[in-house]
Amino acid sequence: MLVRLMYASRAADATDPETLAAILRQSKANNGSTGITGLLCFSGGIFLQVLEGGRSAVSALYNRIAADPRHRDVVLLSYTEIGERRFAGWSMGQVNLGRLNPALLLKYSETAVLDPYAVSGAVSMAMFNELVATASVMCQT
Ligand SMILES: Cc1cc2nc3c(=O)[nH]c(=O)nc-3n(C[C@H](O)[C@H](O)[C@H](O)COP(=O)(O)O)c2cc1C
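That is the input. Now the predicted structure with flavin mononucleotide docked in place:
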């Protein structure tokens, strides 16, 4: 029983590149053993993350993440039962925003700024799919 979950959150004030690197390190270390795959995007103080895996594993991880003091305003954007994974290649891939084409953001939102709070979950998911299709994801493991 596989599910895909997407949420958005706002980083705690002190989020710096080292904090982000620590989160990614921790995610990759844990997700391999629990069978979780997905992507983490961080831009302008906002996290957007997709988690895929077994229903129990995704649910347990989401609850743990939601209680993490490194971010706040965690909002569930999408939860779907799925037949197959879309991000199977990443224990937790990081979206490379340096390579992000502003036109991609503009395609899906009013301005070229990542703001999942301003668009529907379906729109954020469509953008993620396109990021993967255009190979804008790094840290493949
Ligand atoms: C934005 C964000 C994304 C996270 N993503 C993951 C993740 O994919 N996998 C994971 O195990 N922990 C993730 N964490 C960390 C968890 O909240 C929690 O600290 C961690 O799972 C605890 O792991 P530990 O018991 O090995 O210390 C994330 C935290 C934040 C703030």
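The CA atoms of residues 43 and 97 lie 7 Å apart.
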